[in-house]
């Protein structure tokens, strides 16, 4: 991490003082209430022995805390901050540009404010994101057969060794070995419950996950191994289509998804995922019910594992499976999201 978290005593002092300097870099979990907050939250301050500090919202969620409804530490639960939207638009207009802090300042923004806003939203800075986009475009050129030196210069890398190292870290391949490879595209999609990452080729969507999903890195590695593809940040037609369909879904207008899907899985997993898509929005099923529905009533545990291995959230609605008692069970995007999705669909279908 670029930011080294101070001691817990320092952070507790900042919590008491509601110091905004740590917003985006540190969060507090309150054991007595089970919630986590910004350090600047206006709620009554807890005792020192009842708090735990975290670097990211993902760590808070993984530790079992839920987001505070007062200070809303999950910035994804609302529209992006104006500075985020403005810079994302600028990046889309000039993805090949070598963005610098001076460019951000020239646009009238404070560089540290921008850094914190992007860290809160995506877990990376704007400059890190812009660098990924440049590398993605360079990778496209390499796959198309351009020379390494041409791709390097277009990506604004002065050092050949630095360019090769960066491409290898991003795509898992040395630049010269990318020629002729299939290129998958990856991009962020904003939703009311947090940003998602979508990965697709020209024909189908392979992955759609919330950024906090622990298994995301494993899913990406599995996809690359199965397809022999490289991944670059950018847009493919299925990503545009699923973004529009998610927009209609989260607006409460439609729970129908027609984007072509190509999730990587075994024949049994795909059978379970097809079963999940037959569960109507606004309803739920149990693991045993789903097992019976696909004709494998004795495979309840295997159905549970396949449900957890689903790489396309929301569209393949693994959130619609609950425990036999009706209790919410595990969900890779966080139980609070599962609860939100089920309630959203209930309102959508009954409204």
TrEMBL record:
Gene3D superfamilies for the chain: DNA Methylphosphotriester Repair Domain (3.40.10.10), Homeodomain-like (1.10.10.60), Methylated DNA-protein cysteine methyltransferase domain (3.30.160.70), Winged helix-like DNA-binding domain superfamily/Winged helix DNA-binding domain (1.10.10.10)
Domain of life according to the entry: Bacteria
Catalytic activity: a 4-O-methyl-thymidine in DNA + L-cysteinyl-[protein] = a thymidine in DNA + S-methyl-L-cysteinyl-[protein]; a 6-O-methyl-2'-deoxyguanosine in DNA + L-cysteinyl-[protein] = S-methyl-L-cysteinyl-[protein] + a 2'-deoxyguanosine in DNA
Protein name (record): AraC family transcriptional regulator of adaptative response/methylated-DNA-[protein]-cysteine methyltransferase
Keywords: Activator, DNA damage, DNA repair, Methyltransferase, Transferase
Enzyme class: transferase
PROSITE patterns: HTH_ARAC_FAMILY_2, MGMT
Alphabetized GO MF terms: methylated-DNA-[protein]-cysteine S-methyltransferase activity
Annotated EC: 2.1.1.63
Biological processes per GO annotation: methylation
Limits of the HTH araC/xylS-type domain: 81-181
């Amino acid at each position: 991490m670029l930011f080294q978290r101070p001691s817990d005593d320092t952070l507790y002092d900042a919590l008491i003082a509601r110091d905004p300097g740590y917003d985006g870099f540190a969060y507090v979990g309150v054991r007595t209430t089970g919630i986590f907050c910004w350090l600047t939250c206006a709620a009554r301050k807890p005792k020192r022995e009842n708090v735990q500090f975290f670097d990211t919202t993902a760590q808070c969620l993984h530790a079992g805390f839920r987001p505070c409804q007062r200070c809303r530490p999950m910035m994804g639960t609302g529209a992006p901050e104006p500075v985020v939207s403005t810079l994302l638009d600028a990046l889309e207009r000039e993805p090949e540009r070598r963005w610098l802090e001076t460019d951000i300042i020239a646009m009238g923004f404070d560089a540290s404010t921008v850094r914190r806003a992007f860290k809160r939203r995506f877990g990376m800075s704007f400059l890190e994101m812009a660098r990924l986009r440049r590398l993605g475009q360079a990778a496209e050129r390499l796959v198309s057969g351009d020379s390494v030196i041409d791709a390097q210069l277009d990506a604004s890398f002065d050092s050949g060794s630095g360019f090769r190292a960066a491409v290898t870290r991003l795509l898992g391949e040395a630049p010269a070995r990318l020629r002729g490879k299939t290129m998958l595209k990856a991009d962020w999609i904003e939703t009311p419950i947090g940003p998602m990452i979508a990965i697709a080729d020209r024909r189908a969507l392979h992955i759609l996950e919330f950024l906090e999903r622990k298994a995301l890195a494993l899913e990406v590695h599995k996809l690359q191994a199965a397809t022999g593809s490289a991944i670059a940040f950018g847009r493919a037609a299925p990503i545009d289509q699923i973004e529009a369909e998610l927009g209609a879904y989260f607006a409460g207008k439609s729970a129908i998804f027609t984007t072509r899907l190509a999730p990587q899985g075994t024949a049994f997993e795909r059978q379970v995922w097809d079963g999940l898509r037959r569960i109507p929005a606004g309803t739920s099923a149990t693991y045993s019910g789903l097992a019976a529905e696909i004709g494998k009533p004795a495979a309840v545990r295997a159905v549970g594992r396949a449900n957890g291995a689903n790489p396309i959230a929301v569209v393949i609605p693994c959130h619609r499976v609950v425990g036999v008692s009706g209790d919410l069970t595990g969900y890779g995007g966080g139980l609070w999201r599962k609860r939100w999705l089920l309630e959203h669909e209930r309102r959508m279908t009954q409204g």
